[in-house]
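Incident review: delayed structure delivery

Summary: a single-chain prediction request sat in the queue longer than the usual turnaround. Root cause was a stuck worker, restarted by the on-call engineer. No data loss occurred. The affected request and its eventual output are reproduced below so the record is complete for anyone auditing the incident later.

Affected input:
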Amino acid sequence: MPYDFDLFVIGGGSGGVRCARIAAGHGARVGVAEERFWGGTCVNVGCVPKKLMVMASEFGASAADSHGFGWDIAPGRHDWAALIAAKDREIGRLNGIYRKLMDGAGCTVFEARATFIDPHTLEVGGQRVTAERIVIATGGRPIRPDFPGAEHCIVSDDAFYLKAMPARIAIIGGGYIAVEFAGIFAGLGAQVDLILRQNLPLRGFDEDLRSALDEALTNQGIRLHRGTTVARVTAEGAARRVVLADGSSIETDLVFAAIGRSPYTDGLGLAAAGVATNGFGAVTINEDRSTSQPHIYALGDVTDRLNLTPVAIAEGHSLADMLYGPGPREWVLDAVATAVFSSPPIGTVGLSEDQAAMRGPADIYLTRFTPMRHTLSGRARRTMMKLVVDQQTQRVLGAHMLGEDAPEILQGLSIAINCGATKRDFDRTVGIHPTAAEEFVTMRTRTRVAGQVVTPERDAEGPGAGGMGKAEMGVGAGR
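Output delivered after worker restart:
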């Protein structure tokens, strides 16, 4: 039977837009529906606006740090409304670019919700359309809490549109969204309470990274409430009271629940299409990204596998090439680098120490030091860098860093790790001096075999991070 479209994409986020655009470029008749905003979570209420807010939060500390370098910059007053207005302008610009990409590619655009009527039929904005193939790329949504008083909490989507900066904020959660916003609000001058179910933030990350971040959060003045949960939240006029499981309480002005995200599949009509989901609502897919219906595909956060914007883009591009082009583009997804824009930020790629140890003995190289900037600023901020190396093959399985520019540094290391670089390859690489990045190629002495101490780690307390004299004095990792 003839269809209205060769391909219909549900969702105008980064992955859906890439898939639609590439498929149209290969000559397919493509329809795409977006019910909320073009660019999806990342562009509108995720990575991009969040990083702009992280940048805003750093200027106050930079002004204070400048005094150690001879500047007499006086503390200023932050204008929250001006920041949000500037952020909105930039997001509006990017939002428009995503919409224009669809028009430029020749896609038929629907600014409406799409739901399945049957495996090949969708209802979109009051009309029915058919498609030979369909891609589900609807992303995820923040999980709202269900404890008593949950109505007094905001979630991450709301945080980008606050009318005023809270003087006090309690953040519930220990994941990347929670720690990133903790740093943002602390940097802008708020008193921040961070409520963690576990004893350390960032469950699932390398343990040394988690410990280093815990120390950094404390040094920022963030009050950590570890190993506890929220019993209820009550409103006391304009203030809020968070009652914890142990009976203690926190008085604050705003409660921010950052307790995770879930795939956005509610109301899509997946049952009518015969598309299977798992117990958490995520669309289950095969290796070729097809669902339980061979002509229906899913990609990005709605599959809840590797929830990163660049991964969704890679999946969308590869799928479009596979369906309508010369064949799927090769993407390396075995060791995907990622960042947490905490203060300071984290960059990480590959296996953690615990993950590597499950495969066999792993050599661990670890260093902590005061970076050069803060030897003069006096700020209590440390850098941590770590390599995880397979003992038998000496292949570098993982690299982890907390410190200034960690995401920028780890992007380059991810290439080496995905190419199978060994510790010898790192050792024979000449570093750039004086930088923090050079520490990754100058760690010589093994700190331990995974879980087993070999030699005491020596912290770098000198000039730090490639500072003049560090190599000569032999401080830091492995010299």
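Verification: The radius of gyration is 24 Å.
Action items: add queue-age alerting; document worker restart procedure.
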